[in-house]
């Protein structure tokens, strides 16, 4: 009890320092607990929510003509399966928003009875079903959509208008980082859309034990004729496992959790350094009191515990409040978690992680306090009476006043710094850690939150200006030559995706006839394929296979197989890094019937993409022209609008109404034919329109040169927003934390300095020094430590940021991060940090006004 009372007396005597130390521990515990809870708990949370909602463990998505009933029968007859069912849906692959961005939209009938549900309506409002009511994922709130708003999607050159009736939450296809999204519609609205579009099928499976899933999928592929393709927006049959969904949807949360977890260790280290300094300072300032305790009979162990117990009490209070604050931080991150995962964070209490966090922090506090307080137990009463001086000091005098240039305040500040170099070394180390964290977050934010070029490169997509899809029977080389010869076209290239089995894994294989023409896709080691026996894979796959450049790997497709030499390594988040690159001639070895279908078009700088698309649709016969172009180019001979005179451009009077009716009928027929070709893989189709038994209009899709033309830039404009938002939030959290650290550390150090050197500053005042001069002396004494530490931490961040970021994104397929380090940004950050520290030091040193000569003389 006496030891406890001594500890409490020390806390009451130094309330400000005790509160600051408590806040530092509080922040350390809070951020540590947030990082630990999300990092270790997000996957469990996802699985818990998936089971609660009855979500699938395995899904195969088929276009309409790819599905077979025998696929469902296979799963229904397998004893490892808990339940399985097929769900019909309307698919809109590569549907785009008016403001830009592309998704693969799956529209499902919400009134249909399901065994495997996997979703629920979180919010809703009354919307008439005839207004095409739709329920959209909750993450789309962040895109600006609200209840009752209109949702417009452009698909196959046609705008579809919906009215938002509610928001849904689900663990499947409801994530902001996913390009495939599930929408739900009431039955009447769904049937109306189905009549216009037709649909596909989702085969959903839940297993009794997820450990059996991998073997079940292998047996499914072995015992049926299913042809699964790699995940892409135009795959006819693709599969998604619960592991794929979990890894993809929790990606953003995991990255932020790792960064916060690492940052919390920095805060713990700062707390440890400050605690050691605080205890050392306490022993120096309370030397006589400690000696008095020894003189009246307290043992060294009791004196030691009186010091330790002071920090244990502060630590316990800070830990409890930190745990409470962590719940608030996680709640504040709830929007990000909901957008990324698809469902609201509902973990409630996370007592296990709370106890683990509290135990870790308190163990550090007790250990550091016990070791640092050992000096108090060794102080003899006689030594205490001498103020701790054992003998004369022969230490070198640094910065002698008579020989030091500059102002007297600066000389005294530097002299103080040299005498108390351990303290300033501590401050320098803390500033190095703070600068490192700040520089790392700023570099990440600059490369992924402001400039989206790096993120776009990480996706693995080649983003040209225009994407042209040829009509089924058009000669690819002739069409490419025609487009390349157009005025304003800088170059054209081939870049398409096929599915291949490489070393037993299903990969997305990107094919080109000249990789040198590409501008977004890169290899970080080696070269792109030039010959028919070369292949590039991601570094992630190469490591998992134990392969390197120069090694051979087996590639197969539909029974054909061949060996290829790894000529380069790349990186991408696309398909979780499961991609490869191959030259066109190399693909023909395993896919001899491969046909090229798309053309990447790059325009000269300054040209408007939409205007150029209009020119192309006037020059070529396009099956699905842009809505904005109307029926430009539908005359199969010369692309002239039949509603205007070819010579004068004026409206024709004779037969105008008939021509308009025929033109409208032709456009309607083209829309239907385009939908058939796109949805069911039809090679060609013919049409004939009859009036009173007479054929008035006929045509054949073989007459068309181009299926459709897309503005490729607009499609990708918003697909990286979630990653940019997460990096901005991460940078904001870290910078806020570093600001608090600077304030807390300087407060405790300067507060202790004023207490310990109270008499010294009183003497300075008696000699005529003003408060301003003494404040400057204190602030200047911290400049070398803050400047040196900031520069060291900033330099360390610049040198290691790419390596650390590579480790952070490694599981997503990124092996060699290539952040651009802007020197001016880092220098600006370092300058701002030093200026802020100086300003804080001046403000905190203002308490020196409370020290007076009279007060020192009258103190008892």
UniProtKB/TrEMBL annotation:
Region (Disordered) residue spans: 633-655
Question: Compositional bias (Polar residues) at which positions?
Answer: 633-643
Q: Where is the composition biased (Low complexity)?
A: 644-654
Q: What is its main location?
A: membrane
Annotated transmembrane regions: 21-42, 251-275, 311-337, 349-370, 424-446, 729-750, 782-804, 824-845
| Keywords (A to Z) from UniProt | Cell membrane, Membrane, Transmembrane, Transmembrane helix
Q: Which GO terms describe its cellular component?
A: plasma membrane
The subcellular location is: Cell membrane
Q: Which residues form the ABC3 transporter permease C-terminal domain?
A: 261-376, 733-851
Against InterPro entries, the record matches this protein to:
ABC3_permease_C (IPR003838), Membrane_comp_ABC_pdt (IPR038766)
Q: Which Pfam families match?
A: FtsX
Domain of life assignment: Bacteria
- Give the bilayer topology: Multi-pass membrane protein
Record's protein name: Putative ABC transport system permease protein
Q: Which organism is it from?
A: Hungatella effluvii
């Amino acid at each position: 009890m006496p030891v406890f009372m001594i500890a409490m007396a020390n806390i009451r005597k130094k309330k400000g320092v005790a509160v600051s130390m408590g806040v530092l521990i509080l922040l350390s515990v809070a951020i540590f607990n947030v990082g630990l809870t999300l990092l270790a708990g997000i996957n469990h949370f996802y699985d818990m929510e998936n089971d609660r909602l009855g979500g699938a463990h395995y899904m195969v998505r088929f276009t309409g003509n790819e599905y077979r009933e025998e696929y469902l029968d296979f799963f229904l007859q397998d004893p490892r399966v808990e339940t399985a069912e097929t769900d019909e849906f309307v698919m809109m692959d590569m549907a785009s928003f008016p403001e830009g961005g592309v998704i693969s939209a799956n529209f499902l009938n919400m009134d249909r009875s399901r065994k495997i549900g996997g979703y629920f309506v979180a919010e809703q409002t009354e919307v008439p079903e005839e207004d095409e009511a739709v329920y959209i994922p909750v993450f789309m709130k962040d895109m600006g959509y609200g209840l009752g708003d209109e949702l417009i999607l452009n698909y196959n050159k046609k705008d579809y208008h919906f009215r938002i009736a509610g928001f849904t939450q689900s663990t499947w296809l409801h994530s902001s980082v996913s390009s495939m999204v599930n929408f739900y519609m009431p039955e009447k609205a769904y049937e109306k859309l189905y009549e216009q579009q037709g649909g596909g099928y989702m085969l959903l499976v839940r297993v009794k034990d997820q450990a059996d899933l991998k073997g079940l999928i292998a047996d499914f592929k072995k015992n049926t004729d299913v042809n699964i393709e790699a995940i892409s927006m135009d795959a006819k049959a693709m599969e998604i496992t619960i592991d794929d969904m979990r890894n993809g949807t929790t990606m953003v949360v995991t990255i932020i959790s790792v960064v916060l977890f690492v940052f919390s260790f920095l805060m713990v280290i700062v707390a440890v350094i400050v605690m050691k300094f605080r205890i050392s300072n306490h022993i120096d300032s309370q030397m006589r009191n400690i000696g008095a305790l020894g003189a009246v009979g307290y043992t060294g162990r009791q004196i030691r515990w009186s010091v330790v117990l002071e920090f244990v009490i502060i630590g316990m209070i800070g830990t409890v409040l930190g745990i409470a604050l962590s719940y608030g931080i996680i709640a504040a991150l709830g929007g990000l978690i909901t957008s990324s995962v698809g469902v609201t964070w509902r973990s409630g209490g996370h007592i296990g992680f709370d106890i683990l966090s509290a135990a870790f922090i308190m163990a550090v506090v007790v250990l550091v306090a016990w070791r640092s307080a050992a000096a108090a137990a060794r102080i003899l009463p006689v030594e205490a009476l001498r103020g701790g001086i054992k003998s004369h000091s022969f230490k070198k005098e640094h910065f002698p006043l008579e020989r030091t240039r500059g102002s007297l305040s600066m000389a005294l500040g530097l002299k103080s710094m040299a005498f108390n170099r351990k303290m300033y070394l501590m401050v320098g180390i803390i500033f190095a850690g703070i600068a490192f964290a700040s520089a790392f977050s700023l570099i990440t934010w600059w490369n992924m939150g402001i400039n989206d070029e790096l993120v776009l490169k990480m996706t693995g997509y080649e983003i040209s200006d225009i994407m042209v899809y040829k009509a089924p029977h058009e000669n690819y080389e002739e069409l490419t030559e025609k487009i390349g010869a157009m005025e304003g076209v800088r170059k054209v290239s081939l870049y398409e995706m096929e599915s291949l089995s490489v070393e037993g894994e299903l990969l997305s294989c990107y094919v080109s006839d000249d990789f040198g023409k590409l501008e977004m896709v890169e290899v970080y080691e080696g070269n792109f394929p030039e010959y028919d026996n070369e292949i590039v894979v991601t570094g992630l796959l190469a490591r998992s296979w134990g392969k390197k450049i120069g090694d051979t790997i087996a590639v197969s497709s539909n029974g054909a197989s061949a060996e290829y030499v790894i000529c380069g390594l790349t990186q991408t988040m696309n398909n979780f890094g499961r991609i490869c690159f191959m030259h066109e001639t190399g693909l023909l070895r395993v896919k001899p019937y491969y046909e090229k279908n798309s053309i990447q078009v790059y325009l000269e700088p300054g040209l408007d993409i939409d205007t150029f698309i209009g020119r192309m649709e006037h020059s070529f016969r396009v099956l699905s022209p842009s809505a904005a172009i109307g029926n430009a180019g539908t005359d199969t001979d010369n692309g002239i609008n039949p509603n205007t005179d070819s010579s004068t451009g004026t409206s024709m009077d004779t037969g105008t109404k008939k021509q308009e009716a025929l033109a409208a009928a032709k456009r309607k027929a083209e829309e239907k034919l385009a939908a058939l070709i796109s949805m069911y893989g039809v090679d060609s189709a013919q049409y004939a329109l009859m009036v009173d038994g007479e054929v008035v209009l006929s045509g054949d899709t073989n007459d068309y040169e181009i299926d459709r033309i897309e503005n490729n830039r607009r499609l990708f404009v918003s697909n990286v927003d979630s990653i940019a938002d997460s990096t901005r939030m991460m940078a904001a959290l870290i910078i806020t934390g570093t600001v608090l650290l600077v304030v807390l550390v300087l407060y405790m150090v300067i507060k202790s300095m004023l207490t310990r050197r109270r008499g010294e500053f009183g003497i300075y005042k008696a000699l005529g020094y003003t408060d301003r001069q003494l404040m400057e002396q204190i602030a200047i004494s911290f400049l070398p430590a803050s400047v040196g530490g900031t520069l060291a931490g900033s330099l360390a961040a610049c040198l290691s940021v790419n390596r650390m970021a590579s480790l952070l994104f490694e599981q997503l397929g990124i092996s060699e991060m290539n952040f651009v380090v802007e020197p001016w940004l880092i220098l600006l950050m370092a300058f701002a940090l030093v200026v802020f520290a100086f300003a804080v030091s001046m403000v905190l040193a203002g308490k020196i006004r409370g020290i007076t000569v009279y007060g020192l003389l009258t103190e008892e």
